[in-house]
């Protein structure tokens, strides 16, 4: 199985295909498996890399480093270790935040960012963070089963929801530290400084991070665009994979055109 030791932590990844590299970052508590529909289609046209960031999926579950800065440092080292040349980073939910912060920290490293249903800032989201932190610590199983269905649009397959809950329960408990990080997180003041092109993709029915968040972030980001995936909630790459893949291709083509014109 493919692992790289990054900052003393074994990280699981998958790397297939050739061409423009696309690096996919999953959301909180899940794994690179959430990008299966993208891997299957896009591997024929791109170099597709999925990563289980620390604490999640098949990667190590260290007690330390579960911070915004810690994960971004992992990503910088991982991109360099694999020799990814200006990858386009596609992140969903907290993965979109990691991608945005990566672009702000090292703009010359990336070819673009596709921020899917993120990045977030509180109090834009509905559920109080204090409640999430408390319930995930003391009532993890029952709370995850109650919370996760809200991530998806009405009518989503119960099997997909149950699988998502299982991934979260299989992840390390130390990733809950990320909730404390985001209690005061707000990227809006720094978005005007973003030099890396970014495209916001958002599920129209997202009840976790309202679509207005994407529109506000785009308004603060030079040259940013917003694509709405109708009928999708917080996980559009799984809920509406064909529509999502089409939107992703358009965004990637836009980055390529902009780079050629520069």
TrEMBL record:
<dbReference type="InterPro" id="IPR050228">
    <property type="entry name" value="Carboxylesterase_BioH"/>
</dbReference>
<dbReference type="InterPro" id="IPR000073">
    <property type="entry name" value="AB_hydrolase_1"/>
</dbReference>
<feature type="domain" description="AB hydrolase-1">
    <location>
        <begin position="22"/>
        <end position="247"/>
    </location>
</feature>
<dbReference type="InterPro" id="IPR029058">
    <property type="entry name" value="AB_hydrolase_fold"/>
</dbReference>
<dbReference type="GO" id="GO:0016787">
    <property type="term" value="F:hydrolase activity"/>
</dbReference>
<keyword id="KW-0378">Hydrolase</keyword>
<dbReference type="Pfam" id="PF12697">
    <property type="entry name" value="Abhydrolase_6"/>
</dbReference>
<protein>
    <submittedName>
        <fullName>Alpha/beta hydrolase</fullName>
    </submittedName>
</protein>
């Amino acid at each position: 199985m493919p692992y790289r030791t990054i900052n003393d932590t074994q990280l699981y990844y998958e790397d297939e295909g050739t061409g423009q590299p696309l690096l996919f970052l999953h959301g909180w508590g899940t794994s690179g498996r959430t990008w299966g529909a993208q891997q299957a289609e896009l591997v024929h046209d791109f170099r597709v890399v999925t990563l289980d960031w620390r604490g999640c999926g098949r990667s190590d579950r260290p007690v330390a480093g579960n911070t915004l800065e810690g994960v971004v440092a992992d990503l910088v080292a991982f991109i360099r270790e694999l020799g990814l040349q200006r990858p386009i980073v596609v992140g969903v939910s907290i993965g979109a935040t990691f991608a945005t912060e990566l672009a702000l920290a090292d703009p010359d490293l990336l070819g673009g960012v596709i921020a899917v249903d993120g990045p977030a800032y509180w109090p834009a989201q509905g559920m109080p963070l204090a409640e999430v932190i408390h319930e995930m610590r003391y009532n993890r199983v029952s709370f995850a089963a109650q919370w996760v269905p809200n991530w998806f649009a009405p009518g989503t397959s119960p099997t997909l929801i149950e699988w998502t809950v299982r991934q979260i329960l299989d992840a390390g408990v130390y990733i809950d530290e990320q909730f404390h990080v985001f209690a005061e997180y707000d990227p809006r003041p720094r978005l005007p400084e973003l030099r890396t092109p970014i495209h916001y993709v958002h599920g129209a029915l997202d009840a976790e991070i309202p679509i207005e968040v994407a529109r506000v972030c785009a308004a603060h980001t030079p040259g940013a665009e917003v694509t709405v995936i109708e009928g999708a909630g917080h996980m559009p790459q799984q809920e509406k994979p064909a529509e999502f893949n089409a939107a992703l291709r358009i965004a990637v083509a836009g980055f390529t055109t902009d780079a050629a014109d520069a």
